[in-house]
Amino acid sequence: MQVLYKSTRGKEKKVTASEAILKGLSEDGGLFVPEKIPALDVPMEQLADMSYQEVAFEVMSRFLTDFTEEELKECISRAYDEKFDTSQIAPLHEADGAYFLELFHGATIAFKDMALSILPHLMTTAAKKNQIKNEIVILTATSGDTGKAALAGFADVPGTRIIVFYPKNGVSPIQEKQMVTQKGQNTYVVGITGNFDDAQTAVKKMFNDRELARELDEAGFQFSSANSINIGRLVPQIVYYVYAYATLFREGKIKDREMINIVVPTGNFGNILAAFYAKQMGLPVNKLICASNENKVLFDFFGTGTYDRRREFVLTSSPSMDILISSNLERLIYRIAGNDAQKCSLLMKNLSEQGEYTITEEMKGQLEDFCGYFCSEEETAKTIARIYQNSSYVIDTHTAVAAGAYKKYVNDTGDGTPAVIASTASPYKFTRSVMEALGVSTAGADDFALADQLSVISKVAVPRAVEEIRTAPVLHDRVVDAPDMPAAVKEILGIR
């Protein structure tokens, strides 16, 4: 069964999976969505006996139907290899009455590795399938983790260049050091004097700039995206929820068809949307608990039906979630609007021009799979301390937002359904915030000294990703204002 992709705003013709991956964003500004969600028609008994790579093939082959079996298996084997520090790729850790799905065992110790390890291979395969002659320029805005994971994935991949923009004062020291020390002849990192939303808005604008596209084409380039708006990012994320369920079943923690809840710390909405797609495929999921930090635009949306980005932007200890425009929510809005591209387009226009939109009561009624909770900075820190004291398990600030939100959900509902919490980053990525939450003085200590202390406390070795950047030289020091991002891209590509 072939699955084609269409835009949430409806003006672009249907495209194949490989075309959608190459384009990244639709020409009308919308996001590509599958015409229909394919069924997960493999018995759980079989999935439970499979490796991560085998589960990945079963899930992804249902969505990426114009890739041959050989092409897809090659992409998967090249992605999920020794770059990960465990053969399980995404292991589960039981603590504090829930199962933490550890998505941080890849090269950059954050969940973005799960999709960005495979996206370069999907993209270069897609380019060959579609006879693309231009060099592909990956243009990405990051709130912290996507940038490094994308850089690591695309570094020195033939036929590609990657330009990453990040908020200069809006990421953790470890996150910044990971990016600015990135090697690779085709990698470029640019700080901006603004926040993530400024960077993301400017990147979207460049994607929709026809004149810039013409200039690029004349110079032998074309844009594509490694952000979570790319369907090639979203599909691989569905895999680990299926794998988590199969693992719980294999280990006898749940019975076949038993419901689970999934809790996701959420910024751009891609990770929790992947869990929703897994449910639509047939995975037995009860509630999708959307956890926000103090930038609680999604919490307010699920409570009121109004998405309002006109609020103070808060810099928190969970910077990858410091987002006021959750781009992937558009895919859910399109679905609950009855796949009505005109209705979806109007709501997105309202968000762009007026800073808010409100969904209808009928649409709101279709959000019953979701519930929103948020954690303050104080609650996040207390959650890290509580879980360490109770379970000797150290989690990062983003995972703590999810764990804190889950505790509130259980207190409110008494729901004892087994829960999987998406653990989206290693605590080593946010050592200062984690150590402060654990009551350790960080005054005068650099982040690497704190990493050494954290290793003693957690009894987990300092990850290779941190050791590698400890003494690495800074290779990227460019900083621009957000309005100057297009000029920076042209300069990097040598376009006059």
The number of distinct helices, counting runs of at least 4 residues, comes to 22
Q: What characterizes the major β-sheet?
A: 6 strands, mixed
Strand order of the largest sheet: 3-4-14-9-10-13
Low-confidence stretches: none
Number of strands: 15
The gross shape turns out to be globular
* Rg calc: 21 Å
- The percentage helix is 40-55%
What is the arithmetic mean of pLDDT?
95
User: Could you say which structural class the secondary elements and strand pairing correspond to?
Assistant: alpha/beta
Report the β-strand fraction as a percent range: 5-15%
Tell me the span between the first and last alpha carbons. 46 Å
SSE arrangement:
Blueprint: E1 5-7, H1 17-23, E2 32-34, H2 44-48, H3 52-63, H4 69-79, E3 92-95, E4 98-102, H5 112-116, H6 119-129, E5 135-141, H7 145-154, E6 160-167, H8 173-180, E7 187-192, H9 196-207, H10 210-218, E8 221-224, H11 231-250, E9 260-265, H12 270-281, E10 285-292, H13 297-304, E11 306-308, H14 329-336, H15 341-354, E12 356-358, H16 361-364, E13 370-374, H17 377-391, H18 397-413, E14 419-423, H19 431-437, H20 447-458, H21 464-469, E15 478-480, H22 485-493
Parallel strand pairs: 4-14, 5-6, 5-8, 6-7, 7-15, 9-10, 9-14, 10-13
Antiparallel strand pairs: 1-2, 3-4, 11-12
Helix pairs in contact: 1-6, 3-4, 3-11, 4-6, 11-12, 17-18, 17-19
